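haha ok so turns out i had the wrong file open the whole time. this is the CORRECT one, sorry everyone. sequence first:
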Amino acid sequence: MSGYIRSDGRQPGQLRPIRFVPGIAPHATGSVLVEWGNTRVICAVTMEESVPKWMQSQKVPGGWLTAEYSMLPYSTLDRKPRDISKLKLDGRSQEIQRLIGRSLRAGVDLVALGARTAWVDCDVLQADGGTRTAAISGAYVALAHAIRRLQSEGKLSSNPLKGPVAAVSLGVVGGLPLLDLAYVEDKDASVDLNLVMDAGGRFIELQASGEEATFSGGDLEAMLALGRDGIGRILELQRVAISGGQP
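then structure:
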């Protein structure tokens, strides 16, 4: 047994406090502020009544969903320069926004979305670990609100969402598998894992890597067990935020 004790006193399988606050960006079709421990992310969905040129030229039916992700300069302890100052997109940001897009498209019937594009913008206000998983989980809530608005305006006759999508970070720190790593844990982790799943318990994406270390099948199974349980709790919080009810 590892003697590792989490800095905030959480149990290995305990999530940080999570809150989804809808309606944070009134001009977006749907939006939410994600408060996840000390991580803060604004997720906003804007619907554009057109599709990319490649879909038009290839006569692909339905619509499209794409994501953009950025960490604001003041989101980290040391100021992070904007991508525009370097005249190119940061490699990490590019990888994360592709992950967000892939994850959400797995939960959407793009044909039923119609000939429109869902632009998903995720902006990190404060980073304390798990920004990509917070962005995915929050973006689904924002997307659900956007779809509801289109339905209320008579632009969609049916709901194109196939089911909720949620994500959580995991890792091995001090030899102990942990759920939902804060930055102080993530920087010392020997293994990092980002898990994306749907409400049916199916995997959408699994990103696992050893940080100058290896990990066993047992480590992976332990992290996945923690992750499945954590995803279940996140899905319930999403449901409440989408329905406007109480947990």
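The helical segments are 53-58, 83-86, 91-105, 110-113, 131-152, 183-186, 217-243.
again sry for the mixup
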